[in-house]
Amino acid sequence: MPTLSAMPFPMTSRRWLWLFLLMLGAAFLVQLGAWGPLESSEARYSEIGREMLTGQDWLHPRLLGIQHFHKPPLTYWLTAAGLGLFGENTLGVRLLPVLAVLLQVVLMYGLGLLLFQQDRARALAAAVIYGTLPVVLISVLNVTTDAYLATLELAAAYGILRYYSGGGVRWLYLFWIGLGLAFLTKGPVGFVLPLMVMLGFYVKQGQHKRPFTVHHWLGFGLFLLVGLSWYLYLVAEDPAFIRYFLYEHTVERFANAATFNRAKPWWFYLVLAPATSLPWAVALIVRAIQTPWNSVPRQWRNVLIFWVLVPLVFFSLSKSKLLLYVLPIFPGVVLLTVYYLGRCTEAALHRWYVGILAFYGLLLGLLCMLPVFSAVFPLGIEVRPFTAAYPAAGVVVMVLLLTLWNQVRIAPRLLVSTVLFTVTLLLTAKPIMQQNELAFNGSRPLAQFIRNNHLENRRVLVYNELLPSLAFELGQVPVSLNDGNASLNRETQFEPNDTWHRYLLYLNDPKQEPLLGGLLLQQPVMLVKGEIKPERHWMLRYFKQQQKLGKWTVMW
User: Fold this and answer.
1) Phi, psi angles (nearest 5°) of residue 378
2) Fewer CB near the last or first residue (10 Å), C or N of the chain?
3) What pTM does this model have?
4) What secondary structure does DSSP assign to 121-175, as a single string?
5) Burial status of residue 219 (CB atoms within 10 A of its CB: 0-12, 13-18, 19 or more)
6) Locate the ArnT-like N-terminal domain: which residues (predicted)?
7) Pairing relationship of beta strands 479-482 and 504-506 according to DSSP bridges
8) Is beta strand 66-67 parallel, antiparallel or unpaired with respect to 460-463?
9) Partners of 4 in the β-ladder
10) Quick one: which of 210, 209, 182 has its CA closest to 72?
């Protein structure tokens, strides 16, 4: 049987890193804008960025016409910049997060070099595994603050470790600037990974401390300037922001599950973190259990304790939980995985290779069958037959390459198969997202229906739902009709006047009935998700036609 030649250049060459970045970037970019922003988080960031770009107010983020200060502005600025550079479309929203994740991969390679004492093969393995983790892929395809935050935290962590390892003072400045930008992205939580990295470096390792110099003061000054300037500006404008930032969005977010309706059980991350880092989480857990603790060097004990376990406990104690909040633990997870697998014999590594390839093959096989499953079982999604071509082609390519490739060592084969699986997974997921936008809480089909029926020039009313994705798709802010939905309670206390009533009406407030009546007389379009409350049925007489689209009813 003919075979392909061995590796064209050694695994220690940086060219493998750039080849991986090229493949991963291309897999991200293909059909990146094929579906619209999805509710709720991605739609919010997309629409706030669009309104910021349109209104040119860079200091007061607005969501559906009303000021919105749930997060610091850096993500909104970057979203607005992406929309300005690449167009007011979903590609403009998602392109910069793709670049951010590719930069994370480069930073992981750099961290790998530092922790593995310039072993480029292991550093490359860390970069590849990190870039192919399911949780990292999710952070790109569902835009939030977390992709940017992870990039800045990694930059700060790399900067301080590089400085501690004898690097020049510029790495110290990278640490402080990265920390400041992380604070401007998500507040105090941006300290988690850099602080844990510093603790992991010093605790019980007897590391020599570099002298305190004027550069530390200058770096700290840069952090204050970058990280606190926006907060101080708003506090000077309105002292009420002090309580708002320090209590409602720090203490309350951490301690009160009801504040942002993100209550999850304490074990939420203990299940989701391993599940979204498969199959590597299994390898890490099994190898860590099998390896005697006293045989693990202090450096790697500290990585496990401070980079993974302490942040995991911290985020688990928080009452407000979302999957991507724990993104900072995964650099430690990946580095530990490479360390523990690196201790394996070639025979043991071959067993892991067979098991991981079996896992990939099983998932690709299930994806090939997904069109059949969606037709037979009530999955709630539509998967067209041609979608199976992507995983089928992925299986063929992986089998041919790994059969014909004359490579004896296991590690390169394992990494290459992981990259091929990830590329196949990304190419398969995007058509599924496009075919099921309404099921996945997107509004592009709703906007297309409004345009197709030449209704785009009418006022749009959204009954009892916050729907920024529709505003993004239409390029206009609808009127939200709040009929008791707590998610529609907005931060109107910071509005300078009552003009916000143009975008939000409280139906339980009798004083706003004239405004509602005036809107209904203008022949608007109204969108209702589910059923309208019986006491509001009188509004239906203003609409002569209606069309059901998924869970939504469009009335006009």
Assistant:
1) -80, 70
2) N
3) 0.91
4) HHHHHHHHHHHT-HHHHHHHHS--SHHHHHHHHHHHHHHHHHHHTT--HHHHHHH
5) buried
6) 41-245
7) parallel
8) unpaired
9) 405
10) 182
